[in-house]
Amino acid sequence: MRVDQLWIYPVKSMLGSTVPSADLAAEGIVGDRLWTLRDETRGAIASARKIGGLSRLAAAYSGDGVVVTMPDGSTVTSADGDANERLSEAVDHAVSLWAKRPPDDLEFYRRGRPDSDDLLTEMRAIFGRTDDEPLPDFSVFPPEMMEFEYPPGNYFDCYPLTIMTTSALRSLREALPDSAIDGRRFRPSIVVDTGDEPGHPEFAWSGRRLRIGTTEIQIGSACPRCVVITRDFADDLPLDRGVLRHVVKDLDQNVGVYATVVTGGRISVGDSVEII
Q1: For residue 75, what are the β-bridge partners?
Q2: CA pair distance 205, 219, nearest whole angstrom
Q3: How many domains does the chain divide into?
Q4: How confident is the model at residue 173 (pLDDT cuts 50, 70, 90)?
Q5: What residues make up the domain containing 162?
Q6: Tens of pLDDT along 68-124?
Q7: 5 phi and psi, to 5 degrees?
Q8: How far is the C-alpha of 126 from the C-alpha of 116, rounded, in Å?
């Protein structure tokens, strides 16, 4: 097995890009999700789970800040005085752009106002579940996620890394021939080339470690998927609720696996990947 893709997402919930090499540290891929938008209506960190338009924005680093490309091709930078107004217009929601806040700024990371007073209704909306579909097993999430939108000090979802395989992407394409399937929809950190292995081989890695070059990562649970994977990401990756229906019904709600970093270091596309 070898590393097929490495992804960095400069701004939480926006499109990112692949890179040839990256450094792994305790908080995942260095440079990943260093910025976010804040939902000024809910008073919380913004997410494509609540604001679907975020999925159409693409972010890249520019000096000490970021540049965001809008669906119409125009750009706005974090240094622009009207950045918040233009981003709010682009997603049709009041937002503001923030660099990563320190972990002791607990109020910044705290959960915002729900859209519904009924917890079940709120959870079904976040996870994109129909009335007859099960919600995920919440025990796989860190306990702090009950109180905070994201782990204080970070903008990643629950754990620093999400691992997928080329087999998983191929299997999704085979199961959903009428859907547009690529890594952008599932936001992996690392995609591992698993050759001709069928299905989703990463599910069998839970509880094991992977050695990637000179680094090691600990594989955790499978990754329950939410409404985000149905969003409209680009003209060639449109809104598609059928993707989530397949994931819930046929994949026990999961795509990819969570992981944490045990031994950091430099990794590159083409590096060997070994189960240890």
Answers
A1: 69
A2: 6
A3: 1
A4: very high
A5: 2-275
A6: 999 999 999 999 999 999 999 999 999 999 999 999 999 999 999 999 999 999 999
A7: -145, 145
A8: 11
